[in-house]
Amino acid sequence: xxxxxxxxxxxxxxxxxxxxxxxxxxxxxxxxxxxxxxxxxxxxxxxxxxxxxxxxxxxxxxxxxxxxxxxxxxxxxxxxxxxxxxxxxxxxxxxxxxxxxxxxxxxxxxxxxxxxxxxxxxxxxxxxxxxxxxxxxxxxxxxxxxxxxxxxxxxxxxxxxxxxxxxxxxxxxxxxxxxxxxxxxxxxxxxxxxxxxxxxxxxxxxxxxxxxxxxxxxxxxxxxxxxxxxxxxxxxxxxxxxxxxxxxxxxxxxxxxxxxxxxxxxxxxxxxxxxxxxxxxxxxxxxxxxxxxxxxxxxxxxxxxxxxxxxxxxxxxxxxxxxxxxxxxxxxxxxxxxxxxxxxxxxxxxxxxxxxxxxxxxxxxxxxxxxxxxxxxxxxxxxxxxxxxxxxxxxxxxxxxxxxxxxxxxxxxxxxxxxxxxxxxxxxxxxxxxx
Length: 435
Ligand code: SDX
Hints:
Layout: E1 6-9, E2 18-23, E3 31-32, H1 37-41, E4 61-64, E5 69-72, E6 75-76, H2 77-83, H3 86-95, H4 101-113, H5 122-126, H6 134-144, H7 158-184, H8 197-206, H9 217-229, H10 237-247, H11 252-263, H12 271-284, H13 291-299, H14 320-335, H15 342-356, H16 358-362, H17 370-379, H18 387-407
Antiparallel strand pairs: 1-2, 2-3, 4-5, 5-6
């Protein structure tokens, strides 16, 4: 990570100028190492929202926002979505290389062996209201894994870290499906070893004890692709949360629970749920004929209305995942005979209008991964309230891979940003009887 060039920072307030090394990555923007600024100048840098800040070095995922490219460990997302399944992608993200057939088989068997949860965990669910948001349940039960699996909480031991990674990847789909079953009052189901990761999710969510679950392989393939597309995404808000939580030495299950909490926000992983609410409202308000009025509302800053599923901090071109998601959407709707699904029709029309409107074009606002993922999931029978849970199931491998990369760093430090303080200077205390 060394570079031959330097940046010089000079000041008009008499502070002596300083030089800082510039590092080059494999691809992407260079970085300026500012770690010595405070020590040498007594000044902090200021970057709320981290618009210009690289918080870490990573070898896992790279995004080219201008070209609309996403790469996991050097492989473009399109190649992985066409040629791999989710567990093969998990192996790649976790270990850095695509598995051989033997490695893939062993990995799948290890995930299977850890896919059940301790029977006592079933009791957690009865404490929740049936109408509790499943993300509230998922945050709780993933954090609670630390109460059961103490033998892999030594984060200084690489094998413990690896085992915890396997455990959380394997158990989150089971717990997610339990949250869904609890919400509909049906009995929990167990994972089946003969099924793929995505097929297991479908049978744990939609199977019942009354008959064998008949799966639709087009839907299973679509779900597998949704998981691949959501698996990792550089230092997004929830991944940054997982890294920051992990930097304090917190156990991996607590860190993943923190990541799930962050993902819940509508500006982040909650956008797919918010996008479907937006499309349903548009439909109820009159459908395609009302899109013009809606776009006007979005452009009016005072309305506070955003075009959910559009825009991205990094992508200033089309999110490559949105293109692949739209393909899956079309496949699933065709398979289910829903190609004239009014939601899909209105989403396509809204996208077409937005992409021709200068307000969106000038701000480089394009559909992101969340724009179509809700429509696919709804068509597959997944309720809106479960969309972000599914995102969390997919992103868990990215979170735990990034967490492991951070913990493995030899000079890993606790993350502790500073601030620009604009509050009161120190002042005299006034006793209450004198206020
Ligand atoms: C995900 O970071 C990741 O990688 C996240 C993610 C991942 O895989 O982890 O990709 C997953 O979270 C995707 C994003 C899902 N969120 C949404 O779809 C919610 C709607 N999108 C916006 O909230 C917004 O676009 C963000 C939060 C995604 C990005 O916000 P930024 O980068 O802070 O951009 P900004 O808010 O500064 O917007 C720049 C301009 C502003 O207008 P001006 O002040 O310049 O006039 O664009 C406008 C914004 O008002 N704008 C939008 C808009 N998004 C930005 N206007 C209308 N609708 C939108 N969706």
